[in-house]
Write a structure and sequence with these properties.
The chain has 194 residues and is mainly alpha-helical. Helices cover 80% and strands 0% of the residues. The termini are far apart.
């Protein structure tokens, strides 16, 4: 169902990104239906935060829907109040090196490389969807890059698990293209790397 909703939104319900014949439907969908979908997807993310099993495909499609919704002011008003929680409790943990990946690396490094470079795995990989979400949000929404970098600095300067620090560094790497377009961040990033 999550995949169908994502396809429906991106193909028919995203004003400005659909064929002219679907514009009326897209406006109706965004204003009348997207609130309920986003609310449902927030519940899925909340279940993930509470350590309830969520299928990787469902989580990936949920985050992909959020990525598509970031572009629209109407849906952004719904996403924005929850974005800090999404960043802290969903995106960064998904970007972090997990125990399963560490075990795979120890047992079979070749399989680890295949797994992480497989085009098939990227289709429904929550980590890739989380990367896309944070990249889109930082490049399209004012203030999100600053919040994300403040969170990363907080994580990197505090005494937290190495996995969370890895997630914060992964986040910095994910948005480095956007960081390099900003003069202040570009200079700070160069100093950080040297």
């Amino acid at each position: 169902a999550a995949r169908i909703l994502y396809c429906w939104f991106t193909n028919y319900g995203s004003p400005g990104n659909v064929q002219k014949k679907y514009e009326t439907f897209a406006d109706w969908y965004l204003k009348s239906f997207s609130n309920q979908v986003l609310t449902t997807f927030f519940k899925i993310c909340e279940a993930y935060r509470q350590q309830t099993f969520i299928s990787p495909k469902v989580l990936a499609e949920t985050l992909s829907y959020f990525s598509a919704a970031v572009s629209h002011a109407f849906s952004w008003k719904i996403l924005q109040p929850n974005f800090d929680t999404l960043l802290r409790d969903v995106v960064v943990p998904l970007l972090s090196h997990s125990a399963d990946l560490a075990e795979m690396w120890e047992d079979d490094p070749l399989e680890y490389i295949r797994y992480n470079t497989s085009m098939f795995m990227a289709l429904h990989n929550p980590s890739d969807a989380a990367s896309t979400l944070i990249k889109d949000a930082c490049s399209k929404r004012k203030g999100i890059l600053d919040k994300a970098m403040q969170y990363c600095i907080q994580v990197l300067t505090s005494d937290v698990k190495p996995e969370i620090k890895d997630g914060a560094l992964h986040l910095v790497g994910t948005v480095c293209g956007t960081l390099l377009k900003n003069k202040v961040y570009k200079q700070q990033l160069e100093n950080f790397l040297t």
